[in-house]
């Protein structure tokens, strides 16, 4: 039984729209900010830009009709005059706030045409001996039709009911409270909902007060407990034990035309050791653009194949999946390994042949897009799943592939790769259920791409650059902007640029590639570009990930101010893969928003993907950084990953010990904070 269930159904529906589904959701719906109604300020002491509470007698009132209908009141407190301006008002307020009435008003002060004023302040008529508030006034986020007064009442009633039922009890053992110097949970919540006037209001607004730190700690701890418990559950599952005594990886290393870096050897050993364990690996392989993740994945695949299991490689786009197919075929076919290709655009006969090879176990390596986890795909013995650009797949999609083991109780190992580096704090929080390997070293000979910021008015210089590069025997990309609102506009832009450049460079072979072409058409264009037949490739962002043409040394990105940091970094990583130094020109158009200016400055100043990702996290916050496909993950409401890293580190350490020594308290704490959302963290 919950107090929430006893509420009026209409009210419950409104609360549910706010995401409040239980008693603990209500008492953890903490104030956005606080108003100080505990003291009065003299009008003579007011300053523009400050917020204050003032009391005075209405000495004037008028309704203006132009430039728009508005009510103007003037109050006096014997030290000065203050204007009150209302654009929305009821006729009854003309009587309520008539001259001679004493008003208590709270709002932000600004300089008006006739002196200081407040626009739409909070107003109350002062009755005889109306006392000032003794606590700061909380202001909660709400929705239309749900007033602050109703929300405050329901939160207070719920808190009292939970107290009476002894359900707000302390769940953290004393040893952790002392070690982390945290106040009790109940006192912290009580203070945040009803802060006494003795508390510095800045510490409440900035969320640095010990009560706020306790709430943030519990939130982080619940997240850590959920992810780490999932990590432990996974270790109790059975997975194929893939032998370390194998020859195929050694054979591949012998025939490769390059040597692995120390970082590649290190992460390959970490993955290999995991694959030999009897529980499923779930490892994230991070590496900057061009760091050599694919060859590390190939070594892992060979370990699984030689142990008698099949391997699935899934990529988010057909271009990237086909790139993997070509590269892995080049490496593995000489070793006698049958590879199957599955995509949504295949002919039915080709697809049926591939499905047969997968089901019979003839195809040991299966490469494809989302087509890999459709119902018609059945593996004989799936031992390892490799997911490239894992953040581009939804939680449900990844789980669907994991369920295709074909061995009943056996769970396949899973290796996820990402060229979008994940900042340390994000990795510690949202990826705490994964083991992480990082390739933090680029192969020898890979130099940083030179980045240039050029105003759109200087396009003539860019044209000259392209001509020089192509005359020198190199190739170039011209990338068109991502216009999220309209694929049609994006395509139109790409077509127009292709036509314009074709007229300017009549001597060059210029091609256009975009998402609306068939897979066959895209493959043909990319093949011609790889062979050097096409000099200049006009492209939408379909070439963002995985495309590898060593002779392409120049990239122009149109309207770079419209793109995100991760996307710009990915695109820039497509060039400079050969002997020539890569140059990336970011064309931008004025005026720039403050956010766009910061993005361009970051991509210009930094080449390290991890630093770019860290700056991106600061700009956008974890919700946007993780992307809409990760919306199943409950994001942090109170803790800030950059400012509260000390709390995150403490929560991580406490979570391990609580799961081991205080499992019941750990379970209650997860239920308190996550409730029905706890399952989202099992991706």
TrEMBL record:
One of its GO terms (molecular function) is DNA binding. It catalyses: ATP + H2O = ADP + phosphate + H(+); Couples ATP hydrolysis with the unwinding of duplex DNA by translocating in the 3'-5' direction. Residues 462-618 form the Helicase C-terminal domain. It comes from the Bacteria. Keywords: ATP-binding, DNA damage, DNA recombination, DNA repair, DNA-binding, Helicase, Hydrolase, Isomerase, Nucleotide-binding. PROSITE patterns: HELICASE_ATP_BIND_1 (PS51192), HELICASE_CTER (PS51194). It is an enzyme of class 5 (isomerase). The keyword Ribonucleoprotein does not apply. Residues 274-439 form the Helicase ATP-binding domain. Its EC number is 5.6.2.4. GO terms for biological process: DNA recombination; DNA repair. Belongs to the helicase family. RecG subfamily. Plays a critical role in recombination and DNA repair. Helps process Holliday junction intermediates to mature products by catalyzing branch migration. Has replication fork regression activity, unwinds stalled or blocked replication forks to make a HJ that can be resolved. Has a DNA unwinding activity characteristic of a DNA helicase with 3'-5' polarity. This is ATP-dependent DNA helicase RecG. It comes from Nitrosomonas stercoris.
């Amino acid at each position: 039984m919950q107090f929430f269930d006893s509420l009026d159904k209409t009210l419950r529906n409104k609360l549910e729209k706010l995401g409040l589904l239980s008693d603990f959701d209500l008492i953890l719906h903490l104030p956005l900010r606080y108003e100080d109604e505990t003291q009065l300020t003299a009008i003579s002491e007011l300053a523009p830009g400050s917020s204050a509470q003032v009391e005075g007698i209405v000495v004037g009132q008028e309704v203006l009709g132009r430039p728009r209908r508005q009510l103007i009141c003037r109050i006096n407190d014997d030290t000065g005059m203050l204007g009150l301006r209302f654009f929305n008002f009821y006729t009854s307020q003309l009587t309520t706030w008539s001259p001679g009435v004493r008003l208590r008003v709270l709002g932000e002060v600004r300089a008006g045409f006739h002196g200081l004023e407040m626009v739409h302040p909070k107003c109350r008529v002062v009755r005889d001996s109306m006392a000032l508030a003794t606590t700061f006034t909380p202001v909660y986020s709400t929705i239309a039709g749900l007033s602050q007064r109703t929300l405050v009442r329901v939160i207070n009633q719920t808190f009292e009911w939970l107290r009476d039922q002894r359900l707000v009890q302390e769940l953290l053992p004393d040893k952790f409270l002392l070690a982390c110097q945290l106040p009790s949970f109940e006192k912290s919540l009580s203070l945040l909902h009803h802060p006494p006037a003795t508390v510095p209001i800045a510490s409440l607004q900035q969320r640095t007060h010990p009560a706020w730190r306790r709430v943030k700690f519990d939130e982080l701890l619940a997240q850590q407990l959920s992810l780490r418990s999932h990590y432990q559950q996974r270790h109790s599952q059975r997975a194929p034990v893939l032998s370390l005594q194998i020859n195929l990886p050694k054979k591949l290393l012998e025939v490769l035309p390059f040597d692995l870096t120390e970082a590649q050897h290190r992460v390959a050993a970490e993955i290999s050791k995991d694959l030999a364990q009897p529980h499923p690996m779930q490892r994230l392989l991070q590496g900057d653009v061009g760091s050599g993740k694919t060859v590390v994945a190939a070594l892992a695949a060979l370990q699984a194949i030689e142990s008698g299991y099949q391997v699935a490689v899934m990529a988010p786009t057909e271009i990237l999946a086909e790139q993997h197919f070509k590269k892995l075929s080049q490496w593995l076919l000489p070793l006698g390994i049958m590879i199957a290709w599955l995509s949504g655009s295949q002919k039915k006969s080709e697809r049926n042949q591939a499905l047969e090879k997968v089901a019979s176990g003839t195809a040991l390596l299966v490469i494809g897009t989302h087509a890999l986890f459709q119902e018609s795909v059945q593996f004989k013995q799936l031992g390892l799943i490799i997911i490239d650009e894992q953040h581009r797949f939804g939680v449900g999609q990844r789980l669907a592939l994991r369920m295709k083991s074909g061995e009943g109780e056996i769970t396949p190992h899973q290796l996820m790769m990402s060229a979008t580096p994940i900042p340390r704090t994000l990795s510690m929080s949202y990826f705490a259920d994964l083991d992480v390997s990082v390739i933090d070293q680029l192969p020898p000979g890979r130099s940083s791409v030179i980045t240039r910021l050029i105003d759109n008015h200087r396009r003539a210089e860019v044209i000259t650059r392209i001509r020089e590069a192509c005359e020198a025997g190199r190739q170039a990309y011209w990338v068109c902007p991502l216009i999220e609102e309209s694929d049609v506009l994006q395509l139109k832009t790409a077509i127009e640029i292709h036509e314009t450049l074709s007229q300017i460079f009549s001597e060059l072979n210029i091609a256009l590639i975009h998402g609306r072409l068939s897979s066959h058409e895209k493959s043909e264009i990319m093949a011609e570009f790889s062979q050097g037949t096409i000099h200049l490739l006009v492209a939408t962002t379909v070439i963002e990930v995985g495309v590898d043409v060593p002779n392409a040394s120049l990239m122009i990105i149109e309207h770079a101010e419209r793109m995100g940091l991760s996307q710009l970094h990915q695109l820039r990583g497509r060039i400079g893969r050969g002997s020539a130094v890569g140059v990336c020109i970011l064309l931008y158009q004025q005026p720039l928003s403050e956010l766009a200016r910061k993005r361009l400055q970051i991509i210009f100043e930094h080449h390290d993907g991890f630093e770019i990702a860290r700056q991106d996290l600061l700009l956008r916050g974890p919700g946007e950084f993780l992307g809409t496909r990760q919306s199943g993950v409950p994001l942090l409401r109170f803790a800030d990953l950059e400012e509260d890293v000390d709390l995150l580190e403490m929560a991580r350490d406490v979570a391990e010990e609580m799961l081991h020594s205080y499992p019941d308290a750990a379970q209650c704490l997860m239920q308190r904070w996550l409730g029905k959302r706890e399952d989202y963290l099992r991706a």
